[in-house]
Amino acid sequence: MSTTATTSHTATPTTGALIGTGLLATAAASAATMAVATAGNMAGVSLDIAGAPIPVAGFGVLTAVFSLVGVAIAALLSRFARRPRRTFVRTTVALTVLSLLPDVIVDAGPATRALLMLTHLVAATIVIPAVARRLAV
Prior knowledge:
Elements (H helix, E strand, L loop, with lengths): L14 H28 L5 E2 L2 E2 L2 H25 L3 H22 L4 H23 L5
Helix pairs in contact: 1-2, 1-4, 2-3, 2-4, 3-4
């Protein structure tokens, strides 16, 4: 009788894969927030804050900037955190909640505020799970 030793390997995600996934998620989230803003505007929701219009492209740009900050946080956590995925999800969910606060107090109508909050949630729903999947448990 012979025995065969089996070993299981836990794949450690590479930084390159993490960044690649983050970039794809960022692009998808930027496109999605612009689509949500466009749909809202077409439905009659104003994109004006304090009387100044927000360009639809502005939704995509700001989504990209803050999504890339999230990817940078993920890269740092993958290197330094004991539980990178858990820490990333908790951190980014908390940051998403905090990102809603300015929308509550902004000088805009209720529908505009709701649309702004929706774009934050859409971006988070796309980026957080995609990036979290690339982090070690």
